[in-house]
Every structure is written in C-alpha cells, then in structure tokens.
Amino acid sequence: MSLMILRVGPFLYRVRFVDGYIDHEGEPCLGLCDNDAHELLVSTTVNEAQQIQVICLEYMEMCCRFVQ
Q1: What digits encode the pLDDT tens for the residues 9-64?
Q2: Band of the pLDDT at 3, cuts 50, 70, 90?
Q3: CA 26 to chain centroid
Q4: Could you give the angle at the alpha carbon of 58 between the alpha carbons of 51 and 18, nearest 5°?
Q5: Domain-by-domain residue ranges, the chain?
Q6: Domain of life, per the record (predicted)?
Q7: What is the rounded CA–CA span in Å between residue 11 and residue 39?
Q8: Integer Cα distance of 40 and 5 in angstroms
Q9: What's the angle, vertex CA 61, arms to CA 16 and CA 5, rounded to 5?
C-alpha cells in the first residue's frame, strides 16, 4: 500500500499499517492515533474494507479533538 498522509488542522499524520493488533494500555485495538509521533496506526488483522473504516473512525476522532 502506498504512503498515506492525513491533514488534521495544521498537522500532518502518516498512516502506518502494522501487523497484528495494536496494544493500547493492555487492550488490543484495530486503530490508534499517536499524537506524539503524528501517526495513525492501523492493524492489518482485518480486510481492506475494515481498514478503511478504522482510518475513517480514527480520522474523525482526531478532527473532533482538534476543534475542541
């Protein structure tokens, strides 16, 4: 998959696909926004359609946090 960059306000976030589930505070998850690294992590354990859903959900959450 090609490099994907998302803009959230003045920031650019790189989408990075990772093998397996993503650990978030001891819980497995399919997507995670790393604000410090400006990355959106997406698990490859699900099919491409579900990965797109994860990206959309995480992006929406990032945008909501930015406007608060």
Answers
A1: 899 999 999 999 999 999 999 999 998 999 999 999 999 999 999 999 999 999 88
A2: confident
A3: 18
A4: 45
A5: 4-67
A6: Bacteria
A7: 10
A8: 9
A9: 35
Residue with tokens 């699900």: 46
Cα first-last separation, the chain: 32
Q: Which two tokens stand for residue 5?
A: 């960059």
Report which of 53, 62, 61 is spatially closest to residue 13, judged by C-alpha positions: 62
Amino acid at 19: D
For position 47, what pLDDT does the model report?
96
Q: What is the CA angle 21-49-8, rounded to 5?
A: 75
- Please name the residues in contact with 4: beta carbons below 8 A apart, sequence gap of 6 or more: 14, 15, 55
User: If you count them, how many residues does the chain have?
Assistant: 68
